[in-house]
Design brief:
Blueprint (H helix, E strand, L loop, with lengths): L7 H16 L4 H12 L1
Helix pairs in contact: 1-2
Length: 40
């Protein structure tokens, strides 16, 4: 399923965060901070 290059970045970020959160709920804060910094 090909995705548009406009929403690929955002979708990837959200998907990665979700996956990490599900795998390591303990590191949610660290990952969230890192993702926020990277996005901004």
């Amino acid at each position: 399923m090909p995705r548009p290059s406009s929403t690929t970045e955002m979708e990837l970020s959200v998907w990665m965060v979700t996956c990490i959160l599900l795998a390591y709920p303990a590191n949610a804060s660290s990952i969230e901070l890192s993702t926020t910094s990277y996005t901004r």
